[in-house]
Amino acid sequence: MQLQKLANAVYRLTYFNLWAKGPAPALALSHSGLKHELVYPKDWSKEKGKATFSKLPMLQVEGGPTISHELAILNFIGRVVPKMAGENTHDYLVSQQLMCESEDIYAKLTRFQPTTSKKEKVTKEELDAFWSKPPNMMVHNREQGLHGNLRLLDDFYETTSSGTSIGECKLYSTLHLLRMIDGSVLETYGFLTISTKRHLRGHLLGSASFIPLCICFE
Ligand SMILES: N[C@@H](CCC(=O)N[C@@H](CS)C(=O)NCC(=O)O)C(=O)O
């Protein structure tokens, strides 16, 4: 399918009623201007076997491809709508790096943080250490805990000219996820707090609010 056709196609994003890996693509679709709808799976136990890679989120293009994996979906939206990827090299690189650092945080949450369906993943001491601050920035990044990533993001201090690139959609989705677990998590981070307030209170949450999403990590 040619890019011109993709730009005019209708998109369907399927994801669970959870604030986890669906919101960033939903935000990106919303900012992209692409025609789209957001749906929950009707009966996941029946649909799982048919879904590419057997998981969600999944983006279907009417008359075109189906894409799995959150980051692949975000990058695809950036390919169809170049302003979402970042139109100059600076914006592209900022967007990609914010997206990848945010995914690092998500991966750590998956490892440590209890979810509604899986309560105990690590010991209480390990979970406390994961949330403790200030982080020791001299140890291997997998041992730094959550605040190691937040410190690095805050120091990175870069945005794209639009502020709503795919990387920023992933970043704000991730920061909001953290704030759903602990409302004070960003208190000591000037840049992240300002950016989050500006973007989450404004159009980002507003545009995603038509699909209700529950807490996933507790
Ligand atoms: N690498 C994938 C991971 C997706 C994933 O783990 N999806 C979970 C929900 S967050 C899922 O579909 N779980 C239901 C299942 O596996 O049956 C991505 O980044 O999109």
Sum up the structure in keywords.
218 residues, alpha+beta, Glutaredoxin, Glutathione S-transferase Yfyf (Class Pi), Chain A, domain 2, 2 domains, 52% helix, 8% strand, binds glutathione
CATH architecture of the largest domain: Up-down Bundle
Give the count of structural domains: 2
Quaternary organization: single chain
Query: What is the rounded distance between the termini?
Result: 41 Å
Strands, total number: 4
User: And the CATH topology of the largest domain?
Assistant: Glutathione S-transferase Yfyf (Class Pi), Chain A, domain 2
Mean model confidence by pLDDT: 90
Side by side, the strands of the main sheet go 2-1-3-4
The top-level CATH class of the largest domain is Mainly Alpha
Poorly predicted segments: 208-212
Q: Which distinct ligands sit in these coordinates?
A: glutathione
Helix content: 40-55%
